[in-house]
Write a structure and sequence with these properties.
Helix content: 10-25%
Distance between the termini: 23 Å
InterPro entries: NAC-dom, NAC_dom_sf
Organism: Glycine soja
Number of domains: 1
Structural class: mainly beta
Low-confidence stretches: 130-145
Strand content: 35-45%
Pfam families: NAM
Domain NAC: 8-144
Protein name: NAC domain-containing protein 104 isoform C
Strand order of the largest sheet: 1-2-7-6-5-4-3
């Protein structure tokens, strides 16, 4: 891990479902419970362009995984993340809402005239039981999320 990358054991492929990301990684991170193995690093993507994540985020296949604090300002030095308007609930095996997933696309340049790229980020949020839209909007500013670039 000299360069900050995570070395997974031979034959190990990190491919969690949305439910596993929320229940086994994000809940642990948000509640400060040690996560074993702790393989998803903390990053500040405001300092990185998506193509600079190699060696810093957990790479599995063509997806990067990292934790970061929620930041409403998604502008970066060379571009910005734009909300695509798509938000999906994440359901547990028992059909209980445990989280939400929001999609964002990266645009090069300044908003709103930026050029769309093929970089897509998925932000994951924890839901409280008895989920409703109002509690989601107010809670998302306080919670951490894990981002998954595809």
């Amino acid at each position: 891990m000299e360069d900050g990358s995570v070395n997974l054991p031979p034959g190990f492929f990190f491919s969690p479902t949305d439910e596993e990301l929320v229940l086994h990684f994000l809940y642990c991170k948000a509640s400060l419970i040690p996560c074993h193995p702790n393989i998803i690093p903390d990053l500040h993507p405001s300092q990185l362009a998506p193509w600079e994540l190699n060696g810093k985020a957990l790479l599995s296949g063509n997806q990067y995984y990292f934790f970061t604090k929620v930041n409403e300002n998604r502008a970066r030095e060379n571009g910005y993340w734009k909300d695509t308007g798509v938000t999906e609930p994440i359901l547990s095996t028992f059909d209980k809402k445990v989280g939400m997933k929001k999609y964002l696309g990266f645009h090069i340049g300044e908003a709103p005239q930026g050029t769309e790229t093929s970089w897509v980020m998925q932000e994951y949020y924890i839901c409280s039981s008895g989920f409703d839209t109002a509690s989601y909007r107010s809670a998302r500013r306080r919670r951490k999320h894990v981002s998954d670039f595809i």
